From TrEMBL:
This is TonB-dependent receptor. It holds the Pfam family TonB_dep_Rec_b-barrel. It comes from Sphingobium limneticum. Its main location: membrane. It is a multi-pass membrane protein. One of its GO terms (cellular component) is cell outer membrane. It is found in: Cell outer membrane. GO terms for biological process: iron ion transport.
Length: 610
């Protein structure tokens, strides 16, 4: 019987402590137990909040991952595993990015500050804190059995999750204005049977998949719009609640085969069929501002806040139809064939070229935040994507240069996109988008211990047809044309986050010390990308300019890798690009968003004991 094995990684940086590792304990020649885990504590967030006199968001995450590996008979292997995650973020990163362009709205006290946040909703009338919590559990059994010259694999899984995200936005004199609270409850059972085998020149994989899941969503949006400078009835504290329940059932079958026509030429093909059935119910109603909302808030708590006396104000502010579509009112049934084909040819030993085609589908569904009065209008159709790719990969120059190059074109039809309507985001099918470009990866080893790497891409990603996009902040203020009836046409404009140029260059060097028992290593990398738009509106005020980030590391440890100590730095230039941007509810001519994390300096210790 072998000895226990302990592996661990520990990191200290920027007031963050993180340790992860595992212990493997042999129980018998045919059985072993492994316990893995993660603990992460970020005590100082990247933003200082002077109103609370604390930083945020702060993080405390715990994960435990036990597994039991059994080999009770020749050709039979059983892996039983579980994962329990408890994830906690305190605070939020949403800040004011750009001032309202509407002269009737009061300005934010501060905009564009990448290091400071002004928000506190744990006061009247909200008394609710900002947070992002999730409890998730996974229990899975994998059984592998040698059968008919191949391998039969069964994967059974049961997973659950419960999450809550609560955040607010700044207002005039840092007043409370708007708070968004989203609870989700998910349960899923899945079963897959897969057979894989090689028979002469033929490799084949075939199987089936079953999934059944339930989803419950509660969305609470609370407003005190006087904090945006509004007057009259619009300043009445009011809430908007949307509830959603869905049952989903999926049957799927798949087959993939690769036939080696010659020693150099192979042809692969496959298809997946999916039959999907969804049943749902959805409701929308008004409340006052409900205080003391948190991770344990239930739907009954929200329903108890229903206030019919606020209906006239609700209808005037939100222009929405309060409704209750009982469970079963919303039904969807669809099926999809998703084929793929690959031709691959070896032009020289360890060098190949290929052609690939894939057609995929993303199932339709129902908008959980639908605000109309017609149930059929809550549905959105499936989205389809067709992708063509050609490329080459291999090793050249006496195996010192590894390369991979690909050109691709993907077309999305019936694209599912979030559109901002009536102070909320709704999902609908908006048209077509196209993404095409070139990707290149190079790894060179010009000398012992020295490695150079480059990964870059050129991307042309645009909407081909998008007539129902939400208007930009300037259009909402009447300062730019193109907004008709609250919508604009984004045909011909880049998709969100699409940089034309992206690239990473890295260099790593390692060499032994003294007699060779120890090794020192160092490396650095630079990541750069051209401008992109962080919002979904093609809004110039949401555009992030080109930037570059530098990372570096210095490592020391024995050559057998029993342990290693690393000093590392991330984003050494302290760049804080705009990650996400949106026009906030109640303030359609302003911009709020999040900026990325700044410089991080840390120490990492890894060890393995056997």
């Amino acid at each position: 019987m072998s000895k226990p094995t302990v592996r661990s990684d520990t990191k200290f940086y920027n007031h963050e402590f993180q340790v992860q590792g595992g212990v493997t304990v042999p129980l018998a020649d045919w059985a072993s137990l492994r316990i893995g885990g993660l603990y992460q504590d970020l005590s100082e967030g990247r933003l200082y909040n002077p109103i609370k006199d604390q930083t945020e968001p702060r993080t405390r995450n715990i994960a435990v991952r036990p597994s039991l590996l059994l080999s009770p008979a020749p050709g039979l292997e059983i892996l039983l595993k579980a994962e329990v995650d408890r994830l906690r973020d305190y605070g939020n990163a949403l800040v004011s990015v750009a001032q309202p362009l509407d002269a009737t709205r009061a300005p934010y006290p501060v905009v564009g500050d990448t290091g400071t946040r002004y928000s506190n909703y744990d006061v009247a009338p909200y008394y609710s804190d900002e947070l992002s919590f999730m409890d998730a559990n996974l229990y899975q059994a994998d059984i592998n059995y040698d059968l008919l010259g191949g391998k039969l694999t069964s994967t059974s899984a049961w997973r659950t999750s419960h999450s809550d995200v609560q955040f607010g936005s700044d207002g005039v004199n840092h007043a409370q204005t708007y708070m968004n609270l989203l609870w989700q409850h998910y349960r899923q059972f899945s079963q897959e049977l897969r057979f894989s085998g090689t028979y002469g020149r033929l490799d084949i994989t075939a199987g089936g998949y079953y999934q059944r899941d339930t989803l419950g969503i509660d969305l609470m949006q609370e407003f005190t719009l006087g904090g945006f400078g509004l007057t009259g009835a619009a300043t009445t504290p009011i809430g908007r609640v949307e509830t959603y329940d869905q049952n989903n059932r999926v049957y799927s079958g798949f087959v993939d085969a690769t036939y080696r026509i010659t020693d150099r030429l192979s042809l692969s093909g496959g298809v997946r069929y999916a039959d999907i059935n969804k049943t749902a119910g959805q409701a929308l109603f008004g409340t006052g501002v409900i205080p003391h909302l948190d991770f344990d808030t239930t739907r009954s708590d929200l329903q108890a806040g229903r206030n019919a006396a606020l209906d006239p104000i609700f209808n005037a502010v939100f222009r929405s139809a309060q409704h209750n579509f009982p469970f079963g009112t919303l039904r969807l049934s669809e099926n999809h064939w998703q084929p793929q084909a690959i031709v691959q040819y070896e032009i020289a030993p360890r060098n190949k070229v290929y052609l690939k085609f894939v057609r995929g589908a993303k199932s339709g569904g129902f908008d959980f935040s639908y605000a109309g009065g017609t149930p059929s209008a809550a549905a959105f159709r499936p989205e389809f994507a067709s992708m063509f790719e050609a490329g080459a990969k291999g090793l050249i120059l006496d195996n010192r240069l590894e390369y991979s190059v690909a050109i691709f074109r993907t077309t999305f039809t019936a694209l599912q996109q979030s559109v901002f309507q009536n102070l909320a985001f709704v999902v609908s099918n908006v048209g077509k988008a196209r993404s095409q470009g070139v990707e290149l990866d190079l790894t060179a080893r010009p000398a012992d211990g020295l490695e150079l790497g480059f990964a870059g891409s050129y991307l042309d990603a645009k909407f081909v047809d998008f007539p129902g996009a939400a208007c930009s902040s300037a259009q909402n203020a009447g300062l730019q044309p193109g907004c008709v009836g609250g919508f604009q046409d984004l045909a011909g404009t880049p998709t969100q986050y699409a940089s034309k140029w992206t690239g990473t260059f890295r260099v790593d060097y390692a060499r032994p010390l003294g007699s060779g028992d120890y090794q020192v290593a160092a490396g650095a990398s630079i990541f750069a990308r051209s401008r992109y738009n962080a919002g979904a509106y093609n809004d110039p005020r949401m555009e992030q300019g080109a930037f570059a980030q530098i990372d570096a590391h210095l490592d020391f440890g024995p050559t057998d890798k029993r342990w290693r100590m690393s000093l590392f730095g991330r984003n050494l230039g302290n760049k804080r690009p705009l990650e996400y941007a949106v026009t906030p509810p109640g303030q359609p001519t302003a911009v709020v968003g999040t900026y990325s994390r700044g410089r991080q300096i840390g120490l990492k210790l890894s060890f393995s004991v056997r």
